[in-house]
Hints:
Layout: E1 3-8, H1 12-23, E2 28-34, H2 37-47, E3 51-55, H3 63-69, E4 75-80, H4 83-89, E5 96-99, H5 104-121, E6 136-141, E7 144-149, E8 153-159, E9 162-167, E10 173-174, H6 178-184, E11 190-192, E12 197-200, E13 204-209, E14 215-219, E15 224-227, H7 229-238
Parallel strand pairs: 1-2, 1-3, 3-4, 4-5
Antiparallel strand pairs: 6-7, 8-9, 8-12, 9-10, 11-12, 13-14, 14-15
Helix pairs in contact: 2-3
Protein name: Response regulator transcription factor
Keywords: Phosphoprotein
Organism: Flagellimonas alvinocaridis
Amino acid sequence: MKIRAVIVEDSRLARNELKELIKKYHDIELLGEAENVDAGFDLIQSTLPDLLFLDINMPEKDGFELLEMLDEVPITIFTTAFDEYAIKSFEYNALDYLLKPVSEKRFGMAMEKVRGKLESVQEGMGNSKKLTRNSQIFIKDGDSCWLVKIGDISHFEIVGNYTRVFFEDKKPLLYKSLNQVEEKLPEESFFRANRQQIVNTNFIKNVVPWFNGKLKLTMQNGDEVEVSRRQSYIFKDRMSL
């Protein structure tokens, strides 16, 4: 299995260091490198890599801002010279972090994690316009940030021009419209219940008849979602109710 990788790092010395380490691994294909966030975004959009080596502290825009720009986030390994960033990266659910200068042993440990992760996320990665259940999205709400697997999200809800995302005990805002979100979601798992909400059918705990031919769903976290009358007919057919 080839691991298709890109580097986004403002230091040429650090990029060269990573490239020398990568050369020792025949299963890693380096697709390209970029020295800033905007160039990195273009590179990722054009190559759709499996793996991103991402510097956190870059001028103008930092690595976290790059993740926020992406619809789908590749497996991410942060590279940093600062310990506080390394600790913070785990709040983002990054696969790993590498402190610069990167040792060969530490790089090898990170690549073992990458191989293990890829075995579980390989389906649908690369060329699909739709996200899969294993795809990751980046959410930044205030000072808090997350890398969230699509399959772990229970439902989405309109809040003004933005979308609230529900996963675990969290419900941050995603700065995209619900229609933008819906275009990317895997249809086999997500259902548009009404104009305001999309639900992950895997997180539905209970379904009961409601007024005027509607249905009411209870999600695993206890939230209740009313399915519009039109969508209730579609939902019954889809779920064989």
